[in-house]
Specification:
By secondary structure, the chain is of the alpha+beta class. It has helices at about 5-40, 45-75, 100-110, 145-150, 150-190, 210-260, 265-290, 305-320, 340-355, 405-410, 420-430; strands at about 80-85, 125, 130-135, 300-305, 325-330, 335-340, 365-370, 375-385, 430-435, 445-450.
């Protein structure tokens, strides 16, 4: 069946037909059963049969057997029966219906009116000479009692309900299973992996959900191609810019020789801009390699505490010239599997970004701890005392070319690539990086890296 519409329509239709058929069968079966009873005997005769049956049980099993018989009869038959003693109380302690009470009151007045007393044939006498009268409540035959009695009436309805429920369960499962696969694929895409595909997991399905899965896969493929093309373009352009930049620097050296000291300020400015362009191209190449997967991680044991101490020492040496400091407040022994060069570059980028915006006379604080929730990991925090970042910018902070403030970033020499490169390098190590503003001011960047042996 190729259409989801027809699957739903026919499934619900079959379920309704099954339920309606079971209801009709049950109703007709019960009516036939009731008709056979009416044809076989009158209501009075059936009551007399009940009296005879009850009398035999009373003589054999006493009052306990009589109670059991009355309970079973009440569960089985739609016509309520009561065994009433001389005080007008039911044997099972049930309250008497109004129609029964009226009948008892009417019969009590009968002797005073000269009429015949109640017939003794409706009397059940126990071995201890106690007597109970059998009374039927013909007004108590309700739809609920009819549907619940006899048991043969309820069984087909239960079976129809179970079969209809099974049909609806299979239909719901058929609908939700592929939607669950689509949801998981969307989560994978959101994490940055566009290689997941949904349609192959649906087998030979040919309905609207399969069409949606194929459209979903086509969208993912197109996005993957566009992003790959964009990354290749960045890498190719960066490579192509290297050659004219090198020629520009050679020409700049020749110009200095020929000018003999004239126009030095202009040449110095050209050299500064050329150095900035060379730095930007270098960062673009690094980012393109990390995003394209060309960069491979040289897996080896890395002493994370020693690496962080070296980053803090080098950055502190540079920070002193600007009346700032970099301190390592706390550290624990930590060893991970990874590429020391890539990790050092990532941490350098984050620390230097923090130094760029921390206030004069303050310090950037680093710490290394081991955390256990939600999973066991090493946690590196880098906290500065700068102006922080607008909350709306926090999710975008690690995207390429994202600047909190263009004027400020250009003045500080930033291109919006350092944190992006750091994030890609940390992801290559199965880690994650995030940022948050602190209530007392400043920005904290948190780097989480997995522990090699979490159980140790």
């Amino acid at each position: 069946m190729r259409s989801l519409f027809w699957k739903m329509f026919l499934s619900f239709w079959v379920a309704l037909l099954l339920f309606a058929g079971a209801t009709l069968f049950t109703t007709s079966h019960y009516l036939e059963h009731a008709q056979r009873q009416n044809e076989a005997s009158s209501p009075r005769e059936r009551l007399m049969q009940s009296v005879i049956e009850a009398q035999l049980i009373a003589e054999r099993d006493g009052v306990d057997g009589l109670k059991q018989w009355l309970r079973e009869r009440d569960r089985r038959e739609p016509l309520p029966l009561f065994l009433v003693d001389s005080d007008g109380a039911d044997l099972l302690g049930r309250p008497l219906p109004a129609s029964v009470n009226e009948r008892l009151a009417r019969e009590e007045r009968t002797p005073r009116q000269g009429r015949v007393a109640p017939r003794p044939r409706l009397i059940i006498r126990l071995p201890d000479q106690r007597e109970y009268r059998l009374l039927a409540d013909f007004h108590g035959v309700t739809l609920g009692r009819v549907l619940a009695r006899p048991r043969v009436l309820a069984l087909p309805l239960i079976l129809a309900t179970l079969i209809g429920g099974l049909v609806c369960f299979l239909l719901a499962r058929s609908l939700t299973a592929p939607l669950g696969r689509l949801r998981r694929a969307a989560e994978i895409y959101a994490a940055g992996d566009l290689s997941a595909r949904v349609a192959p997991s649906l087998g030979g399905r040919r309905d609207e959900i399969a069409d949606l899965a194929r459209a979903f896969d086509h969208m993912a493929q197109r996005l993957q191609e566009i992003m790959s093309s964009q990354r290749r373009l960045v890498g190719d352009v960066s490579h192509e810019l290297r050659s004219p930049l090198a020629r520009l620097q050679v020409a700049l050296g020749l110009a200095r020789q020929r000018t003999e000291g004239r126009g030095t300020a202009e040449l110095d400015r050209i050299e500064l801009e050329a150095e900035r362009l060379s730095d930007l191209i270098g960062q673009l190449l690094s980012l393109a390699k990390l995003e394209s997967g060309v960069t491979t991680v040289a897996i080896q044991p890395v002493d994370l505490a020693e690496l962080l101490e070296g980053v803090a020492s080098d950055a502190d040496f540079e920070a002193r010239a600007h009346n700032r400091r970099v301190t390592l407040s706390s550290s624990v022994p930590a060893v991970i599997e990874g590429d020391a060069r890539l990790l050092q570059s990532a941490l350098d980028n984050i620390v230097r970004n923090a130094l760029r915006y921390t206030a004069d006379g303050t310090s950037v604080t680093l710490s290394l701890t081991r955390e256990h929730a939600p999973t066991e990991h090493w946690c590196i925090t880098i906290h500065d005392h700068g102006p922080g970042v607008p909350e709306a910018m926090l999710p975008l902070l690690f995207e390429p070319f994202v600047r909190v403030g263009d004027a400020r970033d250009r003045a500080s020499g930033g291109y919006g690539l350092g944190l992006a490169i750091a994030q890609r390098a940390i992801r290559l190590h199965a880690g994650e990086v995030s940022a948050r503003n602190e209530p007392e001011g400043g920005l904290t960047v948190i780097v989480r890296l997995p522990v090699i042996n979490p159980t140790v």
